[in-house]
Amino acid sequence: MATKEAGPAESVSFLDAMPNIRLFIAFRVLFNARFYYPVFTILFLDYGLSLSQFAVLNTVWAVTIVLAEVPSGALADLLDRRLLLIATSLLMIAEMALIAFVPLGNPRLIFWAFLGNRVLSGLAEAMASGADEALAYDTLVAHGKAAAWPKVLEMQMRAQSVGYIFAMTIGALVYDPEAVNRVIGWLVPGAVVTLQDTMRYPVYLTLLFGLLALAATWRMREPQAVAGQSGPRAATTTLRSGLRLIFRAGKWILATPMVLAVILFATVFDHTLRMIATLTSEYYRQIGLPDASFGLLGSAAAVLGLFVPRLARIMAERLPPGGNALAVGSLSLASLLLLPLFIPYFGILPVMLVFVGLTMTSYFTSHYLNTFTDSSQRATVLSFKGLVFNVAYGGIGLAYAGVIQLLRHDQTCLHPLWSAELIAGQAFKSAMGFFPLYLIAGLALVALYCLPRLRRGRLQAGHD
User: Fold this and answer.
1) Is 396 a residue whose pLDDT tops 90?
2) 86, 393, 446 from 450: Cα distances, Å
């Protein structure tokens, strides 16, 4: 018998009954809606940093996340997820305050301020990863509503997309001194601001969101211990206990075929599609789109986030995990096969499919891991997932850099009279053709490793 889908009034009642769920959604929106994202690279440069310093700083950020990912998840499981999320919000405030108030004119001081920003940002990303989902899911379990997790995920992802659209639009506008001066001219005739003023405005707005995130996490409450969870976490807050939890969770992942398969298949999809997502601006140039359209296209991709989570929820409720993996794989492969064609203007379509694939991957991974994992190690397992995702992403980034260097060298030898811009463009186009093969090879390896283990697991379950 078909069940009636919850209407708006039921959704409001659902959120009112469990404030943690509402606060979890608010935290995700506030933490991820970074107003400086549309001007990320030029923000660093306008402060006075070089491109090489920019690359070094973001490497520091990635390394910090990788090193802190799993230990922070274990802390969340051992101590208190709410306290870890409060600490995350405080780190977000500190990271933004460093660059919001650093004086200009001293390159060394600015570099150290941004270095501190990247370290604190990496720590905040790592600490938020897993802890917020674990708290929200355990809240549902404590209220006997674990089956509502797909609906919560849908609401969270749609709300996060709205926040992303808002931050992308406002952040780009307030960074532009001409746009700001037009508004100020109406309010305070004669007042003028320069780029040195406006380049801090997206940072100020993100700092404000950090303060609001702190307010949201402060109001969260750790859910009552769920069935099967032993005693208060405070009794096991030792380094030895943390290490035991990390090793136990890692061993459990390796011994649980379904969880291992979810993480590995999702890793192949995530890091491949995420690499494409980082290359979109250059791709747009190669298909003839003007730079001014990039922000609008970023917002268009975010608009998809309003609709894709609902589709993913329906798929999660009606299809088995294997069916959803096949659907995401087919969608991802179709997009990667279309991208190397570089169809003028219409090449936007496969890029949008990439973002759909990323959103579905995120949804299904969160849905299945929270469903299959016990509360006592949920944040740690989710952190393992984040660690694997980021290591794979770093690996494909290094591989891509090496391939591009080789292709540039080949193009220089083949076309010695071409300009550096033409050579770089042709190398980029050639490199795009490797991604479909890379995805197929990655999925084939994961399937060869996981499918026999899944079959053995089903046979053992049948005998039991």
Assistant:
1) no
2) 38, 21, 6
Q: Is the pLDDT confidence value at 153 over 50?
A: yes
State both tokens at 461.
């379950």
pLDDT at 16: 61
Instruction: State the Cα–Cα distance between residues 386 and 396, nearest whole angstrom.
Output: 15
Give 226's DSSP letter.
Answer: P
Tokens encoding 204: 């100020």
Mean pLDDT score across all residues of the chain: 84
185 and 93 Cβ atoms separated by less than 8 Å: no
Contact present, 309 and 157 (Cβ < 8 Å): yes
pLDDT tens, residue by residue, 221-251? 888 754 444 444 444 445 566 677 778 888 9
Token reading at 50: 């070089």
Buried b (16+ CB within 10 A) or exposed e, 29-40: bbbbbbbbbbbe
Amino acid at 280: T
Domains of the chain and CATH, by start: 19-221 (1.20.1250.20), 255-464 (1.20.1250.20)
Return the exposure string of 43-69: e unless at least 16 CB atoms fall within 10 Å of the residue's CB, then b.
bbebbebeeebbebbbebbbebbbebb
- For the chain, give the longest Cα–Cα distance: 82
Among residues 263, 247, 232, which one has the least CA distance to residue 380? 247
3-state secondary structure 84-98: HHHHHHHHHHHHHHH
3-state secondary structure of 137: helix
Q: Per-residue pLDDT tens for 100-114?
A: 999 998 989 999 999
Q: How far apart are CA 45 and CA 122, in angstroms?
A: 20
Q: Look-up: residue for tokens 């999320």? A: 85
212 vs 168, higher pLDDT:
212
Percent of the chain with pLDDT over 90: 37
**Residue 422 identity:** L
- Residue 23's pLDDT is what? 94
